[in-house]
């Protein structure tokens, strides 16, 4: 083993974690042949096969499972050593890997901005994708931390609530319900809704809220992003239930409005997760502590500006009448 290189260990760890040579090559920014050669050389040095392929799936051999534990411990220790050295130098440095669902993109950059002010030497790899893909990355242990609106029930994870996630109902600005107050849920259920794809946490929360009251959403269209939903709402295609965080810095504020509905906002939480048995690196633990301490204060800086958190009378927007053209003198 004395002739094995750190690069070979890293290649093996990526393949073993992702169960894919192709995905490991993408993660390491290497060609697939290079990754395969590194794995073959390491297997020859060990003297035993580390992986075996059955059909299209890769499985770790007994030797591979033991080597993966060694690699993970080694890389965790190296990450901690980097942080110790950085502390000696009076700085903090290292790499943080995050995977978040698309709705979290409205506040995670704000949080990272504050984090970078305190720890400018830390690099971040941020993966923004849908819930299904975040859960897949969580299953693959591809990142340090994961942000979801609802922890999975079928996975052994540690989940900590760190931020309020109120869900509100939005409508076109000119919608008849826009000026009504204390709208009942049965009245709302008469309207068509625009929703996210199956599995979306926001969709599940909205459907369950209506179901708990013996009602069902009338779905007109499924869309793949919050931005697409907001544009569709502005276009008059229907109403939507969205996280209030998606309305921060809203460009369509003159085209969509938050409705005053009984039982809304739906009070939910954002969660930061990791596998239950995962030992966090110093960088990841530092960011986790920062999230838990700073997120609510960050949200208070912009959530009160969103109509759902304003007095009802301040939500009513009246467009100024068009100015009449001056009459020409005869």
TrEMBL record:
Q: Name the chain's protein.
A: RuBisCO operon transcriptional regulator
Family listed: Belongs to the LysR transcriptional regulatory family.
Species per Swiss-Prot/TrEMBL record = mine drainage metagenome
* Keywords, ordered alphabetically: DNA-binding, Transcription, Transcription regulation
> Does the keyword field hold DNA-binding?
yes
Q: What is the lineage of its organism?
A: unclassified sequences, metagenomes, ecological metagenomes
UniProt KW Lipid biosynthesis keyword: no
Question: Gene behind this chain?
Answer: rbcR
What GO molecular function terms would the record report? DNA-binding transcription factor activity; transcription cis-regulatory region binding
Which residue ranges does the record assign to the HTH lysR-type domain?
1-61
SUPFAM superfamilies in UniProt = Periplasmic binding protein-like II, Winged helix' DNA-binding domain
InterPro entries to which the protein is assigned, alphabetical = LysR_HTH_N, LysR_subst-bd, WH-like_DNA-bd_sf, WH_DNA-bd_sf
